[in-house]
Amino acid sequence: MTSTLQSGDEKKVREELAAIYRLLAHFRLTDLIYTHVSARIPGRPGRFLINRYGALFHEICVSDLVEVDETGHAVDSDALVNPAGFNIHSAIHAARPEVRFVIHTHSRDGAAVSCQKQGLLPLSQQALMFYDRIGYHGYEGFALTLPERARLIADIGQNKGLVLRNHGLLVVGRTAAEAFNRIYTLERACQIQIAAQSGGAELLYPEKEIMELTGNISNPEEPADWEELAWNSALRLIENDMPDYRQ
Asked: Fewest Cβ atoms closer than 10 Å to its Cβ: which of 27, 69, 100, 181?
């Protein structure tokens, strides 16, 4: 691959990452400055992009993204990087070479489900899209210690999502479209679960074979066309109101 192509690929990744931040803000899946999304940099092993610590998600532009090396230091920048963000994201990127994007949230409903002993229940179509494909990681504090990285890696395994107990949610994706669809769907599954439980009525579960079928259909070997369609439609939500994310 030529350097020109690498530069073009990196520009696209930067724009996609900034767009994810804006979309999380649009859907109110933020927690002030305390969560993070990262993207692997094409052609530079061990390097990834993450948000400048201190920026709100609705403010984030391409210029707010910080390149981070294997040690957690910002490359050619004096920008601050959330140390917990580096610890979590660097562990996932190192262990899962096929993953290009990692999204971590502290949403109200996601955190609420993470506090429930049974975790994500196979109640809704959205939850079934994660059936048998989500891991659980016990709460160890602010995720600042290096030994926790190995446990994070073991707990997510080859799954596409991870519930961080008493903390929040995390998803991985091979493309921006895949990662965004996954966090949107997982968040919606948690919202539905909390709403269904709050009604006080007996909960209805699909048959196990339907759970398995839905999970299998929702997890193709290659990124799905419908994820790209949904991603492009989501981008239109911010293109009209917040096109400055590319700056």
From this structure: 69
Spatial contact of 176 and 19, defined as CB atoms under 8 Å apart: yes
Residue type, 96: R
At residue 162's C-alpha, the angle toward residues 235 and 209, to 5°, is: 95
The CATH superfamily label for domain 7-238 reads Class II aldolase/adducin N-terminal domain (3.40.225.10)
Please report, for residues 57, 148, 236, the alpha-carbon distance to residue 81 in angstroms, rounded to integers and kept in the order given: 14, 18, 29
Handedness of CA 105, 241, 192, 20 (dihedral sign): negative
Q: pTM surpassing 0.90?
A: yes
Task: Supply 120's token pair.
Answer: 């994500």
Instruction: Return per-residue pLDDT of the chain as tens, 247 residues.
Output: 333 334 569 999 999 999 999 999 999 999 999 999 999 999 999 899 999 999 999 999 999 999 998 888 888 888 898 989 889 999 999 999 999 999 999 999 999 999 999 999 999 999 999 999 999 999 999 988 889 999 999 999 999 999 999 999 999 999 999 999 999 999 999 999 999 999 999 999 999 999 999 999 998 888 889 999 999 999 999 988 777 888 7
The helix (H) or strand (E) run that includes residue 189 is helix 176-198
DSSP type of residue 75 = T
Where exactly are the structural domains of the chain?
Answer: 7-238
Counting Cβ atoms within 10 Å, is residue 116 exposed (0-12), middle (13-18) or buried (19+)? middle
